[in-house]
Amino acid sequence: xxxxxxxxxxxxxxxxxxxxxxxxxxxxxxxxxxxxxxxxxxxxxxxxxxxxxxxxxxxxxxxxxxxxxxxxxxxxxxxxxxxxxxxxxxxxxxxxxxxxxxxxxxxxxxxxxxxxxxxxxxxxxxxxxxxxxxxxxxxxxxxxxxxxxxxxxxxxxxxxxxxxxxxxxxxxxxxxxxxxxxxxxxxxxxxxxxxxxxxxxxxxxxxxxxxxxxxxxxxxxxxxxxxxxxxxxxxxxxxxxxxxxxxxxxxxxxxxxxxxxxxxxxxxxxxxxxxxxxxxxxxxxxxxxxxxxxxxxxxxxxxxxxxxxxxxxxxxxxxxxxxxxxxxxxxxxxxxxx
Length: 338
Description:
Layout: E1 2-8, H1 15-43, H2 49-59, H3 73-95, E2 113-116, E3 121-125, E4 131-137, E5 140-143, E6 153-161, E7 167-174, E8 189-194, E9 198-202, E10 205-207, E11 210-212, E12 217-218, H4 222-225, H5 227-239, H6 245-279, E13 282-286, H7 290-296, H8 298-304, H9 306-320, E14 323-326, H10 329-336
Parallel strand pairs: 8-13, 13-14
Antiparallel strand pairs: 1-7, 2-6, 3-4, 4-5, 6-7, 8-9, 9-12, 10-11
């Protein structure tokens, strides 16, 4: 089982080094995109990833590109892997006649992360054998807020920054399912469908002439509650002079408000998913036609984020050993009538 741990890094001066490495990764990424575009114009075909990596290895020997040695070689390989995946998806969509844009250039300020695979990092351990909150990345020491224990074998380490400039570190670990929660079998099942005023509307379930109906779950509507603050910041942002310090300050406040709404929604969804998984042995969700609903209620649907919740519920159900699937009448007849 693959599990990802995310921790916020201490805000210290040495973090400037990590920001510089992220921007260096952006420079290499844009250089690779330029090579892809030039190669396609000349040969009308896709640039092979192995050829690209060999070409980068030669470039690093030139004086002009010697500063690329500051970034770990495996981190550079991961950049080429990202581009390869993006182009593979682009050409696959072309064959399926799906309109998508090919991978393009990215501004340094908007580039987010770099990833280390087997080398370039070292996570220290305590006397008890558990991982400490200190990590060495390319020879320099950094600290992060370790809110929980890191379990399993670390496969990759990613350093990522958000729009506010805060740095986070992600550890992708391979675990042996020892983290699964032991759940008492309750014998209860529930069916819900997504709604507007009610986040989850209970659906009647008939099993062996027994009518089962649980309570509705009200919708929190986090964006609606914070909408006045977002509007005020947007008005202030539009009045500022372009590229001024005042615009940057308001932009930061706006990002902070948006992150607050996103975190409130995520916290609610995880708590609700854990509550449902702890209460029921099986949860069935009746999913509506989301595309048509977005056309009529776009802002409302995005605020409720039903799709994200369904993904979180499926993920949490694996820990509890709970059945989660789409609502169909035949499901109940097949599973519970015998």
